[in-house]
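User: I'm curious whether this sequence folds into something compact or stays loose and floppy. Could you predict its structure so I can see for myself?
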Amino acid sequence: MKQPKPASSKRSSRAGNRSAPGPGPAVPPPPGQGKRGEQGFLAYLLRQAQAASRLTLERALAELAVTPPQFVVLTMLKAYPGLSGADLARVALLTPQTVGVIIRNLERDGAIRKTPHPVHGRMLQWTLTGRGLTLLEKCRHHALALERRLVAGLDARTLAAIRRWLAKIAADLQDS
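Assistant: Here's the prediction. I'll summarize afterward.
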């Protein structure tokens, strides 16, 4: 009969005591340093920046009981009134299922309303209500505060270059 191996004293001491001698797990640097900073891959840095800005916006919008995806849908409906749910999903970069849930919740809360398409009667078009416009303006107040933090210290020329670069990335990678 095979005897069980005795537990390694090195492993068991490390499990209960973080200050045990020997190499431990690597501790990643904070954002902005090492591979999480200028040495990092661009795609990772874009994701890290997006996650940080989304979390900041999420916290700010929470006082209005609005999520960032709901804010995006409201924003797109103000910019492009009459979009269908499928069109909203495309421009908001969300799944159709997610947009379906968002639309139901915003309609229930009186922020948007549906109308049949004038030619394709089965297709529904979504528009903001007065209540939706008011809610969007409150959300924009928080979004603009974040925007001010993001552009702090940038001159107009640098900001324009960053905007062009980000838009080019989105356009170039759209069909990749």
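Summary: The longest helix spans residues 130-151. Confidence is low (pLDDT under 50) at residues 7-18.
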